[in-house]
Amino acid sequence: MNLFKIVTKNMRQRALATWLTGTSVALGVALAVAILLIKQGVQQRFEQGTLGYEMVIGAKGSPLQLVLNTVYNLDISPGNISWKLFEKLRDDKRVKLAVPFSVGDNYHGFRIVGTTDTFFKDFEFEPGRKPELAAGRIFNFKEDALKSAFQEAAERARERESKERGEEVTPAPEPAPVEHPFEAVIGSTVAEQTGLTNGEKFIAAHGVQPSAEAKEHTENPWTVVGILKPTHTAVDRAIYINLDSFYHIEGHELRSPTAAAKPEEKDNDPDPGQVSSIVVKLQSPIFAFGLYREINDREDAMAAFPAAEIRKLFDIVGNIDRLLLAQAILILVVAGVAIAVSIYNSMSERRREIAILRALGARRATIFSIVLLEAVTICVIGAAVGLVGGHLVVGAANGLLYKASGFVIPALHVQTLEWYILAVAVILGAISGLGPALGAYRTDVARNLAPSS
Amino acid sequence: MPDSNNKPILQLRNLRKSYRDGSGSLLEVIHLRQFELGTGDQTVLVGQSGSGKSTLLNLIAGILLPDGGEIVVNGVDPTKLSEAARDRFRAANIGYVFQSFNLLQGFTALENVLLGQMFGGGHGGADRAVELLKKVGLEHRLHHKPRALSVGEQQRVAIARALANAPPLVLADEPTGSLDTKNGAAVLGLLRQICGDGGHTLLLVTHDPQVMSSFEKVVRLEDLQ
Fold first, then answer.
1. Which residue of A has its CA nearest to B103?
2. Do the Cβ atoms of A229 and A100 come closer than 8 Å?
3. pLDDT tens track for B104-151
4. In the predicted model, what is the mean pLDDT of chain B?
5. Under-50 pLDDT residues of chain A
6. What DSSP letter does each residue of A66-124 carry, written as one string?
7. Does B183 touch chain A (CB under 8 A)?
8. Helices A416-441 + A364-405 axis angle, to 10
9. What is the pTM of this model?
10. Separation of first and last alpha carbons in chain B
């Protein structure tokens, strides 16, 4: 027989109250752990996601929107920028790599991204990690086909604008036939969730998000020619097509230039085409701020550093996290009060037991310890269950999270903060048990030993 | 029966205890000139209801402190000890049997006896606890909780618990008060026999004439005042 056995007997004797109060502690801790795990996991994934994207260039607007659109395939594109700017950046000595992206269609909610073969050959979405094929090959890309697609798109735009002005439309001369292979390389999540296999054809819908009214590009189905290995980044949730096929189809017209480029570039050479954004990798980080300023001085484009934008985003989201954590702590405090109330409520029946133990030779300090230990034990068990529960909840939610966002949170990763939560639970147990323990300490032995009539 | 001239186990001199009544005035419950018990004595202390019998036992056990006078148990005056030392002293030297058994309901018969040992240093361990329960005829009820035992069996467990640390002095406060005549007689016989076999001094308080008549040494509380 020892103190802990007495404590566990007491807890078992009041099993319902023990279970209820322990559960409330577990819920509070599970909530706190889940919030911490999700916050850290999401932030880590988002920050990791920016590693390969040193600088993103797109139309003027919100830098965060540009980053979300280009890096994470979220949100809508802020607009288009000129192909000339892409060419200028590609040829810039300071630039190691420039990859163009165009968005505008989806398949079952998965974004279709028009790009060049550079994306597969040279682009590292994380340092040292390029998109790798699990099956098939990458799409065929030829720059002359892209130029031809740009011409077609510009012609369609001209015809539409003439019609809108009520002018007679003079059909453009038939362009020289250029082959535009409608080929797609799909991310691992796309393959898993749509069931698309290599060689299979699919029809894209207009718009970056699914909609019942969206026009389907039935005339130009794409063929899956390659499936990528999982990267656990936004790449898994995208369908990559050759940029020329993107501009070859109806609806993907070149937009009228929203603003001019720098005046010296304005009239000399007409804009051959447009893209939604350009991801730039520099020869050296020392060029970053110079190029950043240069781009942002332009009236038609802006540059954004994804890592900085994501940090800003999490600074804002951090306040919501703190609010949720405060809520979890409040639940823990309420649980602590519940433990104190529960032990207090049982004090009338406990007083007799305490008096018996005292008559058997238990010291006041022993009685104090028994009651305190009971409150701490409930809190520690509740907190331990909550810690495991929090990880299990996140682990169970990972399936849904993966479907929704393409990444999972490392549910088994134990954070240092969790040990603090456990310590807080011990302190909370001690505080909640202190009042009842003092009451037990002061129990009048002689009065409580008398036979109850 | 051991000779009462042996080493005294309990000595009380000029013992006084008062309480404040509802109106705030002092009410003297105990004013005892002298009382002594030798090793192995079996004495019944009788008195009217409310005459202070239970208070006297609580004073001897060190649960209550006297307003004045001297209590010596097994050569030690527990009132001169710190509270913690007094608790340890009580666990090792005094066994207590109550009218209402006072068993812990969440614990089995064996665990209740082990609890009796726990605070007195675990005298004899589980083997002694089992042996004591066998002595009171409960070898088949070791793992039953009090709720599953009859009142007679519960009081037998209480007797085994009181003797768990082999205390020199056993105090019994109306031990048959909650039992019917047959059970009462059986429990009393058992208590006296085990105390006699182990050489434990027994001080039993009662107002039951039948219990009184079975003892050779009967002391009236009013005669000691």
1. A356
2. no
3. 988 999 999 998 888 877 667 888 899 999 988 888 999 999 999 998
4. 87
5. 257-264, 266-267, 453
6. HHHHHHSS-S-----EEHHHHHHHHH-TTEEEEEEEEEEEEETTEEEEEE-THHHHT--
7. no
8. 150
9. 0.71
10. 27
pLDDT reading at B2 higher than 60: no
Q: Is B114 on the interface with A (CB under 8 A)?
A: yes
Alpha carbon of B105: minimum distance to chain A alpha carbons (Å)? 9
Q: Among A7, A346, A357, A360, which would you mutate to test the B interface (most chain B Cβ atoms within 10 Å of its Cβ)?
A: A360
B118 touches chain A (CB under 8 A): yes
Contact A13 B120 (CB under 8 A): no
Size of interface A-B (CB pairs under 8 A): 78
Q: What is the DSSP letter of B146?
A: G
Q: In angstroms, what is the C-alpha Rg of chain A?
A: 32
Closest Cα to residue A191, out of A230, A242, A233? A230
Closest by Cβ to B63, choosing from A13, A359, A365: A359
Can you read off the two tokens belonging to residue B102?
């006072």
User: If you average pLDDT over every residue of chain A, what do you get?
Assistant: 83
Bridging pattern class, strands B217-220 and A81-82:
unpaired
Q: What residue of A is the nearest CA neighbor of B101?
A: A451
Q: Do B91 and A361 touch (CB under 8 A)?
A: yes
Q: Which amino acid is at B155?
A: Q
Specify which residues B31 forms β-bridges with.
B16
B36-75, pLDDT tens digit by residue?
Answer: 999 999 999 988 877 888 899 999 999 899 999 999 999 9
Q: Which of B58, B104, B170 to mutate to test the interface with A (most CBs of A within 10 A)?
A: B104
